[in-house]
From TrEMBL:
InterPro entries: CodB, Pur-cyt_permease. Gene3D superfamilies: Hydantoin permease (1.10.4160.10). The lineage of its organism: Bacteria, Pseudomonadati, Pseudomonadota, Gammaproteobacteria, Oceanospirillales. The chain crosses the membrane at residues 20-39, 51-74, 95-119, 131-149, 158-175, 195-213, 225-251, 257-279, 304-322, 328-349, 370-403. Belongs to the purine-cytosine permease (2.A.39) family. It comes from the Bacteria. It holds the Pfam family Transp_cyt_pur. This is Cytosine permease. The gene is codB. The keyword Transmembrane applies. Keywords: Membrane, Transmembrane, Transmembrane helix. The keyword Membrane applies.
Amino acid sequence: MHQSDYPLSEVPTGARKGLLSTSAVLLGFTFFTATMWAGGTLGQAFPIGQLLWIILIGNLLLGSYAAVLAYIACKSGLNSVLMGRFCFGEKGSKLSDFILGFTQIGWYAWGTATIALVLVRTTGMPEWLKIPLMVLFGFGFCVTAMIGYKGMDWLSRFAVPAMMLFILISLFTGLVDVRGFAGLSQQTPTESMSVAAAITVIIGTFISGGTQATNWSRFAKTPKIAVIATLAAFFVGNGLMVLTGALGTMIYQQADIVDVLIAQGFVTIAVLMLFLNIWTTQDNTIYNFAVAGCNLLRTEKRRLVTVGGAAIGTVLAVGGMYNLLIPFLVLLGTFIPPMGGVIMADFWLKHKGRYPALDTAQLPDFNRRGLAAYALGAGAAYFSPLLPPLVGVAVAAGSYAVLLRVNHATLSDSLPSIAKQ
């Protein structure tokens, strides 16, 4: 823990990582239980042939969005919250810090509670152990995040291949049980869903994560490595999670790989999968909270913010508030992607593909154009009946492009702070 992963500055050249390291960390992030549950809803609504095309298209769109942000992050060495200073202003960026940080601490509470509840149910432990287990895992899972990129890299290099093996074992067993593709083809959908809604579900599961994956893609040695690693995680990895949930539902009426492994008789593997799946997402989640918190508070003490976030998440889990937070967190997922749209437009249109050094840049307190474009994108996403996340990104980017050409005083980049008036 000798360094703090540059929470308020660009990642220097000497700290950049290769393809294996970057891919492992990002894949560990996208191996997420909730994504499999989303896949389960698709497995109930579509025949296998159509399902495969929907998963392909949905994850290609998701992966492309995340890869574009990964390219910008690698070129600049900045993550999304630091890039937010350029497109929202020094004080205006605190809005994105709060939204990004709040969603992550909510998901951390959900993951902390989930592993304790599932472990008690799976192993037959006494019910009174739920709260002690939440406290144990709430602080235990943040250790690798406290170490930083190196800690998550170490965990992911072991966990990702292991989880991949467990998933392949489960998928092979499931295909044998259902008599292969022919058996899957005979499965009849029990629910109805439009193709557009299905693609929205796939994109919506992790587009907020794609917006914050810049925390690790900025460590890539080259933009090419950043793009390949991000596509591996958000196109291939997330796609595998959706497919696993869909097939589990079609074959066993269980979307979660842990429940499927138990149904297949692999209890030990199921417990290992539970630990690795939750841990590799939890440490990434609390790391996201920490970098957003560091930018919000303008502090370099990332490890202290990490522990503080873990404490808040644990309290929410123990208090049972995680159940109330989930619908709100999903709603916030609609408001996060437009930030990515503003970042893209700001990087290429205003800064011509190169940010100035953050420590010497003269930035306004509030960038009215960026904030207005974000508000328009978030509103469009909220009211859009079709692909809300992508609509939010497109409207935010397009609005920012238009506003850059408006030279009216009320739409100037800077809005003076109260202290200056």
